[in-house]
């Protein structure tokens, strides 16, 4: 039986950070469910690094959320992916999401968080307190505020937890996550 991976996201997810993991995991033969606050078509965004002091954002493709957070039983999944973009800043407010994410950390299942995904972890700081992780540089103060140790590596592995800066780091991010899944 193939392993089941849950991706939690919402509107304004960074397109590459949801599509790349989704298709890469399907390619490896895993079952993948995308969950969001509501089961619907999600709008993605494209974040790019122009010559601004921060990234620019443009509309991206649509992608289906297969289930709502309320419908998810995290015990039925083997691993979790949290993409970035702007989705984490509001999906973390959904009352069902913290308990979903907490399950994966407490059960020591593989968790992958990229870019602004660290905002989701701010709702359950005890699960990452004292752990090492990376995230988009603008998220460094939040990572440190929840008691995690921010590392500047583009991709970082701390036991069952893989984190990465942003979409340019997706190859290493997914390579490390798939290693954890295949243990």
List the helices and strands and how they pair.
Elements lengths: L3 E5 L4 E2 H13 L3 E6 L4 E8 L7 E9 L2 E2 L10 E4 L4 H5 L5 H10 L4 E4 L3 H4 L10 E2 L6 H6 L3 E2 L4 E4 L2 E4 L5 H12 L2
Parallel strand pairs: 1-3, 1-7, 2-4, 3-6, 7-8, 8-12, 9-10
Antiparallel strand pairs: 4-5, 11-12
Keywords: Glycosidase, Hydrolase, Protease
InterPro entries: C56_PfpI-like, Class_I_gatase-like, DJ-1/PfpI
GO molecular function: hydrolase activity, acting on glycosyl bonds; peptidase activity
Name its key features:
183 residues, hydrolase activity, acting on glycosyl bonds, EC 3.2.-.-, 28% strand, DJ-1/PfpI, three-stranded mixed β-sheet, 27% helix, Rossmann fold, alpha/beta
Characterization of this structure:
GO terms for molecular function: hydrolase activity, acting on glycosyl bonds; peptidase activity. Its EC number is 3.2.-.-. Belongs to the peptidase C56 family. The chain is an alpha/beta fold and 183 residues long. It has a single domain, classed as Class I glutamine amidotransferase (GATase) domain (Rossmann fold, 3-Layer(aba) Sandwich), CATH 3.40.50.880. It is built from 6 helices and 12 strands. The protein has a 7-stranded mixed sheet, with helices on both faces. The protein has a 3-stranded mixed sheet with strand order 2-4-5, covered by helices on one side. Strand 4 and strand 5 form a beta hairpin. It is globular, with a radius of gyration of 15 Å. The model has no long low-confidence stretch (mean pLDDT 97).
């Amino acid at each position: 039986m193939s392993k089941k991976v849950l991706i939690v996201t919402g509107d304004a997810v960074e397109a590459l950070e949801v599509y790349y993991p989704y298709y890469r995991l399907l390619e490896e033969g895993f079952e993948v469910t995308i969950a969001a606050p509501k089961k619907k078509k999600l709008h993605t965004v494209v974040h790019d690094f122009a010559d601004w002091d921060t990234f620019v954002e443009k509309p991206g493709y649509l992608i289906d959320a297969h289930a709502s957070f309320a419908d998810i039983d995290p015990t039925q999944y083997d691993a979790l992916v949290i993409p970035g973009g702007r989705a984490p800043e509001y999906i973390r407010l959904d009352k069902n999401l913290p308990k979903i994410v907490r399950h994966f950390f407490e059960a020591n299942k593989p968790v992958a968080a990229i870019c602004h995904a660290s905002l989701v972890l701010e709702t359950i700081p005890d699960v990452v307190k004292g752990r090492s992780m990376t995230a988009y540089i603008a998220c460094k103060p939040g990572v440190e505020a929840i008691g995690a140790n921010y590392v500047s590596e583009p991709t970082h592995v701390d036991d069952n937890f893989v984190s990465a800066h942003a979409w340019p780091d997706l190859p290493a991010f997914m390579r490390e996550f798939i290693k954890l899944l295949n243990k």
